[in-house]
Design goal:
424 residues, alpha+beta, Dna Ligase, domain 1, 6-stranded mixed β-sheet, 5-stranded antiparallel β-sheet, binds adenosine monophosphate, binds glycine
Length: 424
């Protein structure tokens, strides 16, 4: 079989490597990393064609925008198997107002909220909340449309700028305002055919730009899996209280959801609460989740896409950790064109894959930065502490002018995992 992966980032590079353990892969459009032969001898190539013109038995759509725009429907109309919902199911991510409404109808635990397209009622609602305040664009904003602040004045100014279309264009003309929740965050991704739910290894993302969760929200600066605070009981609770009721509600609405459903949760004192649904693999979560899977990943994705999701083959105990290297100026205005040094050397560290996120190779053959997130250095090992050590060893080797990265990805979790082992 040939599998087509749609997208161009490190998530798609990670998908290509996982799928090419057993199949040939075409990435559309891909990036300079998604070319060559996999370790198992399968071909990974790039294509600039529209995915509908690509001959493949399975399509895996990486980013949310094409799903919201109906690529899943277009491909299914051509008789293709697609891992990714149609435009109707993709509204779970494309409209936070739709998602919150569905949660309310399905009894999914989530923060108390209001939806507003006018300033005055939004202001009244904000004033009625105890704070901190959470203001989200209704529409897609590449993970950057959420403000969490203790400062009411800042929240009001943010609402005003969003509603006026100044900060996020049309995506912000409607806002969701929420009560703030507290607790550790968890990304639980499941494969589903709309009924059966196959949980993937839990992951945690680090969304803020700087160490100690400071600085602005980004698309994600690193991730790791597994997550010490999310043992099997927590995974079961998320599946039973969040994922299954949401899928049941989608079925009642006549929506055939086949793909990855990503529940971004906060583990509060009163149990897991849903922050957001994504309708695809997360980035950088995919980098670590896929690295932790054993068995035939392509077969698992094909089963879900064709309506027969099956349990995964058990994998050997494995951990993975990913550090994102971002361009100078990210997230506001990333600078492109900085030459990237010593990438190949970083890839020789044991267990490390240097995944391309935003790179381009010029006619002179030099690899340069070409996006906000540039590389995702991903390491696997038997345990989290060793995966972390390997990832940072590789990070020290690679570089480009103005490179930004966090030094604390998985730090607390790797420490907790080591303590756990010490006690046993
Ligand atoms: P979202 O894109 O909805 O996942 O939001 C991005 C980030 O904002 C999350 O990962 C959380 O860190 C934070 N966040 C979102 N909603 C809330 C909330 N209700 N309370 C506290 N933090 C939140
Ligand atoms: N890492 C968060 C996302 O993919 O939206």
């Amino acid at each position: 079989m040939t599998v087509c992966v749609v997208g161009s980032g490190a998530r798609e590079h990670a998908l290509a490597l996982a799928l090419a353990r057993s199949e040939d892969v075409v990435v559309a459009p891909g990036n300079p990393g998604t070319e060559g032969l996999s370790a198992q001898g399968h071909r990974i190539s790039r294509s600039d064609l529209d995915p509908a013109a690509i001959e493949a038995e399975l399509f895996v759509v990486g980013p949310e925008q094409p799903l919201v725009d109906g690529l899943g429907d277009r491909l299914r109309a051509l008789g293709r198997a697609v891992l990714g919902p149609g435009a109707d199911g993709a509204r779970l991510e494309g409209s936070k107002a739709f998602m919150k409404q569905l949660c309310a109808e399905a009894g999914v635990p989530t923060a108390r909220f209001g939806v507003f397209d006018e300033y005055e009622p939004a202001r009244m609602f904000l004033r009625s909340l105890p704070g901190p305040y959470v203001v989200k664009t209704d529409g897609l904003a590449a993970g950057k449309g959420v403000l969490v602040t203790e400062n009411l004045g800042e929240a009001l100014a943010d609402v005003e700028a969003k509603l006026a279309g100044r900060s996020f264009g049309e995506a912000g003309r409607k806002v969701v305002i929420e009560e703030a929740l507290a607790g550790p965050e968890l990304s639980l991704l499941v494969l589903t055919d709309g009924r059966r739910v196959v949980p993937l290894p839990p992951a945690q993302d680090h969304k803020r730009l700087a160490d100690h969760d400071e600085g602005p929200n980004t698309g994600g600066m690193g991730a790791y899996s597994p997550v010490p605070v999310a043992g099997p009981a927590v995974v079961d609770a998320v599946v039973e209280s969040i994922v299954e009721p949401a899928l049941a509600r989608l079925r009642r609405l006549g929506i055939d959801y086949r793909g990855v459903l990503y529940a971004g949760c906060m583990l509060t004192e009163s149990g897991p609460q849903l922050l957001e649904f994504n309708v695809r693999f997360g980035d950088p979560e995919a980098e670590v989740v896929l690295a932790c899977l054993g068995g035939d990943v392509a077969a698992a994705l094909r089963h879900a896409a064709s309506g027969h999701a099956r349990d995964l083959e058990p994998a050997p105990a494995r951990a993975a950790l990913c550090v994102v290297l971002a361009a100078a100026g990210y997230p506001e205005s990333p600078r492109a064109g900085d030459p990237i040094e010593e990438l190949d050397r970083a890839g020789t560290v044991e267990g490390v894959s240097v995944l391309h996120a935003g790179t381009s190779r010029g006619r002179d053959g030099v690899l340069r930065t070409a996006g906000g997130r540039v590389l995702a250095v991903t390491a696997t090992a038997a345990g989290l502490a060793e995966a972390r050590r390997r990832a940072y060893e590789a990070v020290e080797l690679v570089g480009f002018e103005g490179m930004q990265f966090r030094r604390d990805i998985g730090a607390a979790a790797a420490g907790a995992a080591a303590d756990e082992r010490g006690r046993r």
